């Protein structure tokens, strides 16, 4: 019995020290690679020798550049990493805006090598709220922001590219050049690819919580969003799921979609809190 117990303890210790496959981390808005250093350090502390690539481009104000520009530029970085790790592949973590843009990087790269993609408190179904807006545009309010964002000029900023006003959906579809397309709400020549590239993942992990305080509604981190009366349509009742527009239903039916809710975590703590990292992120980095 003691021999068996000793073997189990050995296996547990080994699982905590063995290196993961390489990890690619995509930072959030108005920050940069420095803001993700705690997450990098925790991964390497718990699993030494894990190679972590901390995306250094589009930091600070440049994170407000057009979403498509950031996605296509970041794609060159991902391609280079896939060339370095063609067999083992990569894990990818995208935080906040970086989770949405990182997901789009995968969708536009049909030969990507990412195995597990973790979306960490990201506006996957869009953003609509004053708290987030005032971080970047202090004088704007959510109800009138569409007057700027749903214009050709406004679409030069990343925030406008995924601003989703439930009261102005016609303008959203007419002017938004990014979110309606990557979510296949508007069909394009790339729609099949946008779905197929996500279905190739071993896991898609969606993490968010009701105390986030920035992503609005917080359920957007799970592809849920407001209707016109500000009721949040649950993921399983949403068109993106029921119509399997980007493969979420397929991923769930095959056990590869993980939707995680964690209370008492503010937006700026998802990647800075060891308990959150250890319990919600590390288990999906095998």
TrEMBL record:
Cellular-component GO terms for this entry: lysosome
Main subcellular location of this protein, as a coarse class: other
Subcellular location: Lysosome
Catalytic activities: S-hexadecanoyl-N-acetylcysteamine + H2O = N-acetylcysteamine + hexadecanoate + H(+)
Presence of keyword Signal: yes
Keyword list, A-Z: Glycoprotein, Hydrolase, Lysosome, Signal
Record-linked Pfam families: Palm_thioest (PF02089)
Function: Catalyzes the cleavage of thioester bonds from S-palmitoyl-CoA or S-palmitoyl-N-acetylcysteamine (unbranched structures) but does not have activity against palmitoylcysteine or palmitoylated proteins, branched structures or bulky head groups. Conversely, hydrolyzes both long and short chain fatty acyl-CoA substrate.
Designated name of the protein: palmitoyl-CoA hydrolase
Lineage, broadest ranks: Eukaryota, Metazoa, Ecdysozoa, Arthropoda, Hexapoda
